[in-house]
Amino acid sequence: MIPGGMVGNPRPMGGIWKFQTLSGPGHPGFMSKSSLRRRTHPFMSAIPYAKDVASDIIARHDSRPELLVQMLHEFLEHFSWISEDAIRQLAEELNLSRADVHGVVSFYHDFRTTPPGKHVVKICQAEACQAMGSKELTAHAESVLGMNMNESTGDLTLEPVYCMGNCACSPTVVVDGDTYGRVDNRRFDEIVETMKGGV
Predict the structure, then answer these.
(1) Of 85, 70, 84, 99, which is closest to residue 10 (Cα–Cα)?
(2) What is the CATH number of domain 119-197?
(3) Domain residues of the chain, as ranges?
(4) Model confidence pTM above 0.85
(5) pLDDT digit string (tens) for 120-179?
């Protein structure tokens, strides 16, 4: 596991691959898990993967492996998901193994590895929101939307999110990048109806 949003080149230690930290708090390339969540943008639909666009993103970060998290975030903003083609290209151009890149992708909940639906609904599952009923809200959402958490259809994706920094207004729901606080079942239904009306 990579601690606290740090990324770096792996080094073998006693037969186990460990990550040598190349960025951390105070380093300009550091991004914590919470800072990634605060930068979440609406993802309306996936666009085809383009190697030239991906290379441009990598080049903007000087092909520095310690900036892998930032590159992945740009990939997500542009393509809406992290595909196997993206993982392969990042590994090749950054001189990392695919396992290195996949390890970073799998560490962050925001780096989805399947195409999203037209709308993305996220429900906070962190402790403060759980204390204010997010588990019950999640069950209601799954029933209303007819899908389980981490599932997608062509029109909709339902995902967990872990702390949006909106704890005073728990439970929190994010729909297409817009954050809603103190969401109960009734308000969730209203939000969903508004979302569908904007299709």
Answers:
(1) 99
(2) 3.40.30.10
(3) 3-107, 119-197
(4) no
(5) 999 999 999 999 999 999 999 999 999 999 999 889 999 999 999 999 999 999 999 999
